[in-house]
Amino acid sequence: MKISLVSIGDELLSGRTLNSNSRWLAHQLNSLGHQVVLGLTVPDIHVRIIESIEIAADKSDIVITTGGLGPTVDDRTREAFAEFVGADLKLNRELLSTLEKNFADRNIRMPKHVRREAMIPDGAITLHNSVGVAPGLYIQTENGTHLIALPGVPGEMKAIFEESLKPILLDLSGERPVGIESFYTTGIPESPLYKIVADSLGEPNMDNLAFYPSTLGVEVRIKIFDTPEDRNVLATLRSATEPWCYTRKEKSLPSILGNILTARNATLSTAESCTGGLIASRIVDIPGASKWFEGGAVVYSNRAKNSVLGLPNEILEQWGAVSPQVAAILADNAATRFNTDYALSTTGIAGPSGGTEEKPVGLVYYGVHTPKLTIVRKNRFTGGREYHRMHTSQAALHLLWLILENKYKEHPWADGSVETLHK
Amino acid sequence: MKISLVSIGDELLSGRTLNSNSRWLAHQLNSLGHQVVLGLTVPDIHVRIIESIEIAADKSDIVITTGGLGPTVDDRTREAFAEFVGADLKLNRELLSTLEKNFADRNIRMPKHVRREAMIPDGAITLHNSVGVAPGLYIQTENGTHLIALPGVPGEMKAIFEESLKPILLDLSGERPVGIESFYTTGIPESPLYKIVADSLGEPNMDNLAFYPSTLGVEVRIKIFDTPEDRNVLATLRSATEPWCYTRKEKSLPSILGNILTARNATLSTAESCTGGLIASRIVDIPGASKWFEGGAVVYSNRAKNSVLGLPNEILEQWGAVSPQVAAILADNAATRFNTDYALSTTGIAGPSGGTEEKPVGLVYYGVHTPKLTIVRKNRFTGGREYHRMHTSQAALHLLWLILENKYKEHPWADGSVETLHK
Description:
Maf protein, alpha/beta, 39% helix, Alpha-Beta Plaits, Molybdenum Cofactor Biosythetic Enzyme, Chain A, six-stranded mixed beta sheet, homodimer
């Protein structure tokens, strides 16, 4: 079905907030077989919200709004929905008691105005919010337009979408694409990956293909119909992306590593300098990480590298903190210190300052300690501090994955990295 | 003046590309004294582009489009502009020779279809593109609407904006911005904060006020006019939000702590269990953190708490890992181990599993070690694992900030937390 997205909030028009919700939703909706035909961004003004819903309803079968569901007077989506469908706002008692319980659990007295959140348009279905208080809303107009309201807070929007909205949208999408297949790759930039895929498939077969790059890698996604041709296309795509594809389902590298390590009853620790805890943080993001992750050291200063992970000062003086030698010792010593089978390490220059001609901003060494060997690779990532840390964390996790999967030796490197230590 | 932004491109509706142009433009336009009142995102379809320009022109004085100015057939903005203003597309010879020269300079033969880029609506002014080939366009309709077309490539869009469009927009903006003031708060949920602000200002003064909640806190933002009344409103707002306001500029808590610690020549370390490196990672996100941050230990397992930070096993057995005693010792021992003046610690149950009746999912203890004392507070955050970690990291950083700013004693706690250890 045709869908319009209406993003509500002054902060989206003032430039304060990036509208990442729309992209995320568009991505999801397309993979459910729907088509996003229009995006609208409007301020928290009652009449503007109604106008935009009118425009959206005129162009599409389903209108999804984000934002404006909070408890304050500048949250106006409930009123707009009610007016648009010609319904009254009614107190939903069940919702009110959920709200009251939520505040009671947090040991906070519920302010009176929060009651607003329990006032919903008569006839609307609430979509349960497992991570926040305001539920989503779903209501159908007399003309058959499906109106859906989601909160603007990304975590809440996503939770409601996944838990309550997806089944409804799957139901509404008559023409299910027979299959959408994804290949999550990392360690290869979009352009060379595109070339490899295009060369293997031939241009005419690229129609149903999409590339979604992020700081963690590139997702290649294809819509497949149940024909022999398409099964061939899928097989070709599988082998073209195989060296860089670490999963076919939407799973993070840490969670994939967790499954492998758990199955082998093996453990991991980290020693991070330039990534500053990002790898550990991404690991701990995975429920159940305690089964395979012992912990890590963020050794940001040279003194911490020495005092916490026993890096000899002579090594620091001879090679400098950003060197393959330091990366290797950090990984080895983390494994000893945390008593783990495997350990990851990073040391680099994230910038913006601190670079030299010999060791420029962006330079990084990352290492993997295993019970048998220790490997360090070097790369140079451009694009700023945050980008550098994300790329380094992913490269280090990917290196461990290649080693665990016994794919390291024959891996066709495509990210510009080189091995600098192997012992 | 009122401005609408029209973003053109299939990639924006498929979820492939994040619309970062709109945010950048909105930010710029607001600071030039204009007001962005509507955002539209449409596919590369001629009739949809025209419709969206009609809607936008109806709502605003200036319409700025991005995208659709390239040389290929799916670049349709030039045609849409021409049709909308009722002008012909005419070959601009000057532009054509610029294009030809550009290709000649790169020693590439100009493909025929690139000529399209030199066909512009009769009467349009070209806006020079110093980093790409397609120029921007500026044309006024008979009704006086200002139509501006910019390329979708961010670097080109920004260059044209800065070099050619800014002077035009400054000219058009008669009324300079009256002033927008922000209060960044944390440690108080949106609803009670709203109540406090509403009680202090009175409903009639809430019109220009907005609340922007995130996992890190709530920003209160107000539009101020240069009148005695508004100066009063600002002063009232300042004192109402004061206990929870940690900055008036857009700055993160780690960066504010960094400034304070640097000024005092003091250092910080971290000991994280449930936050798993998130605090360290947020700190290292700040350029120059090496001046005041030594590093941290992610002690996820009990064994790591013992072996890396010397937490006695008897303490673990007696009180359990999630206890004020453990939070205190972790903070104290991190300070010793990393040889820092201050240290932060966290230990909690992020869920989804691992909770008991006595220690439910969401429970967390976080501590601050200072040269004089160690304080541990307890809270219970609901809303899932990621939310729990973000909230805990912010609460721990905020606790340190309150202590450093000598505001801890009289702080009116509003987040449900309680002190559980003070020594």
